[in-house]
Amino acid sequence: MVARGVVPDRVASIEAFVVPLHLKMIGQGVDRNDRGSFMKSLSYQMAIAALMPEHRFDLGPAEGIPAPAIDDFMRRISVSADQELLAPYPKQWPARIVVLTHDGARHVCRVDDVPGDPARPIELSELVEKFSRIVAAAGVAGAGRFWNGALRALKPDGGEALPAPPFRLGA
After folding, report:
1. What pLDDT, on the 0 to 100 scale, is given for residue 22?
2. How many CB atoms lie within 10 A of CB 150?
3. Nearest CA to 94 among 56, 74, 120?
């Protein structure tokens, strides 16, 4: 919603509607002692995207998190199951949000396909950038093996030469 001009300070509430099967996993808050909770919590991820977008791909809590501003924004977010979102599932994993602002404006956004889904394929350059940002930057052991496996999955026929990974293969 921020990309659509909704200023985070003006948000009174956000209700996120998700596929019922996802609610238990992503509808939770965060636990400082559970790194995974920060990755799975939809309210935390939405707060980070709105207030600290430079940290939206961190694999754990950002420095100084939870911060009062993040906690406050998370309290404005509720996550609910929506049975209607099951209709295209599992071919699509739709979600919908309703944002109410302090001035009474109501903004609705539904997403059926995200970049990388069959309906919204991404270019190899986008895959390289995403991989670099998330896996390689995290220092994941065996990142080169993951890189080559991901590319083989994209080019099972061998086709053109696979691009070099955006990091040292020994990493």
Report:
1. 95
2. 16
3. 120
Q: Quick one: tokens of 51? A: 């207030």
Query: Rounded distance, CA 20 to CA 122, Å?
Result: 27
Residue 159 backbone phi and psi in degrees, to 5? 35, -135
Q: Name the β-bridge partners of 11.
A: 101
pTM of the model: 0.78
Is pLDDT at 169 greater than 50 in this prediction?
no
pLDDT at 136 over 70: no
Instruction: Please give the Cα distance from 167 to 161 (Å, whole number).
Output: 17
Q: Please state, as a whole number, how many other Cβ atoms lie within 10 Å of the Cβ of residue 72.
A: 12
Q: Pick the residue with more confidence: 161 or 76? A: 76
**Has residue 45 got a pLDDT over 50?**
yes
- Burial grade of 15 (CB within 10 A; 0-12, 13-18, 19 or more): middle
